Structure formats: structure tokens, C-alpha cells
Input
Amino acid sequence: MVSVGNPCSGRTTMSVEKYSTFKPVKPYFDLVRGALGDLVDGEHFFDCVSEKIVYEVRYEFPGWPRIIEGRADLIEAFRGYGKHIELRSANHLTKHATDNGQIMVIEYDVHGRILATDVRYNNRFCSSVILANRRIAHWRDYMDFLAAWHALTLKAHS
Output
């Protein structure tokens, strides 16, 4: 397991302010940015994403598309995510690199709450990330669908 410190150490706060709308998802963005380290350019997760990214989820989830193409559409999708789920932390990062670091597999957990019901949200992810030209070119995501489903369908805080 790899621990990640402050991924933005020594960087300016310009991107932090630029993406302040995405504060509910910040722990996820910080974890991913830290996991990719010097393999990508950019301060914030969205700065590290290629304009032509393909972001693919390997599960059906109501309201979330299976494939998102393009940086602008990915930003809009995460804007919606932050309206429904607020993350307080992301941890338990494990990362595996192959192809001279151009392919990364990262495993991690996220913890937060469903905003509409205040139900706890804890989930596990495994993401396969392909880098090209120091940007995220392709993202393939796997998650514990059952954990998400339970959190979104419960009515009271658990």
C-alpha cells in the first residue's frame, strides 16, 4: 500500500480556486492527483485530463453514463456527482505501474455521505488509467456497485 501526502505541495492555488465548485469531490481528486505524481502535468485532476479523454465505467449506475468522451463532458458529469455525494476522505491507495508508468492501476476507498438523505457512503474502486503525453487519456473504473446502491436507497442515517 502506498500513502499519499499532499499532492499539491509546492503548487500554486490557481487550479484549486478554478475548481472550487467541485469541493464535494476534492478527496477523490487529491488522491488521484497524488497517485499519478510526476507522471502527469497539472495541479488538479481536471488539469491532468486529456481534452479527448475516454472515461469508462464498467458498471451500470442510474444517472451516470457508461462512457464519457472529452474533458468538458467529464467535468459536467462530476459537477452532477458533487450535487449528490459529498466525500470527506479517500484513502487505502494501492498503485501498480506498468509500461514504464504509462499504465497505472489504482485501488482506493472513498468515504462520505449522500446529501439528500445524510446516509453514509463508503465505496471501493479499482481504476485502470492510461497516460499519453503526460495526461490521462483513458480511464476505466470499477466500483463496489452494491455499496453505492445501498447508500443511495437507504432513507435514514446509518
